[in-house]
Design goal:
mainly beta, 7 strands, 126 residues, Immunoglobulin-like, 13% helix, 3-stranded antiparallel sheet
Length: 126
């Protein structure tokens, strides 16, 4: 039963992070925001920006991997990307979960976001 539940949860997770319709993110100019995705560095796979956001609108601040607190060998973790909204507008970004040395292989997973940046109170348009 536990194995069946784990398999079902894994399938739900895969479906939720697969590329398809961009997931909307609404932010305000000056706001920092994060995208966190499940990952497992022990497999060699890592999340990379396949299509970065428009650098006039969004700046990539950092990315980091945090392994889980599990003591199990090979347990996964989470990859977190931190961004900052620079100006009002709309931009799309795509991430892929791939092994860097497998240049001609399709990614194991992909996901995309559309970031909608609105002017904040400081800009007088909120």
């Amino acid at each position: 039963m536990r194995l069946l539940l784990s398999a079902w949860l894994a399938l739900c997770w895969l479906a939720s992070v697969q590329a398809g319709e961009p997931k909307p993110l609404a932010v305000v100019v000056g706001q920092e925001f994060k995208i966190t995705l499940p990952a497992n560095a022990t497999t060699g796979y890592q999340w990379v920006l396949d299509q970065p956001p428009d650098e006039k609108l969004v700046r990539v601040l950092k990315s980091n991997y945090k392994r889980s607190d599990s003591k199990l060998m090979g347990a996964g973790g989470k990859m977190t990307w931190t961004f900052k909204a620079l100006a009002a507008g709309k931009t799309e970004m795509k991430l892929k979960y791939a092994r860097p040395w497998e240049k001609n292989e399709p990614p194991a997973q992909a996901t995309n976001y559309v970031v909608i940046i609105k002017a904040g109170k400081k800009d007088g348009n909120r």
